[in-house]
Write a structure and sequence with these properties.
Blueprint lengths: L2 E5 H10 L7 E6 L6 H10 L5 E3 L11 H13 L3 E3 L2 H7 L1
Parallel strand pairs: 1-2, 3-4
Helix pairs in contact: 2-3
């Protein structure tokens, strides 16, 4: 069973989507991505607190915190953390 953890905006969306589903376990919320949330997730990953991630981003828009996103994806490779970057890979994981 997975514990859902993410940035504040992602966690807000997940809590709305899974509202009333008592089988879903929520972990801590990090700051919004541009405010350091991606870096918080990297820290969790480096300390062994993040075993996998579903990380979808809009490829058609730029992100002011792109360097944080790149660091998150790079550290997933370094620490051999399961990573799904598209809905198809997410479905395959589940």
């Amino acid at each position: 069973k997975f514990r859902l953890t993410g940035t504040n905006s992602t966690m807000t969306m997940l809590k709305e989507v899974f509202k009333g589903d008592n089988s879903v376990v929520f972990g801590p919320s990090c700051q919004s991505g541009p405010l350091g949330g991606d870096a918080e997730l990297v820290a969790m990953m480096c300390s062994g607190g993040l075993g996998g991630m579903l990380f979808f981003q809009d490829p058609m828009s730029s992100h002011p915190h792109q360097s944080d996103i790149d660091c998150l994806l790079r550290q997933a490779l370094v620490h051999n953390v399961m990573s799904c970057n598209t809905p198809v890979t997410g479905y395959m994981l589940m």
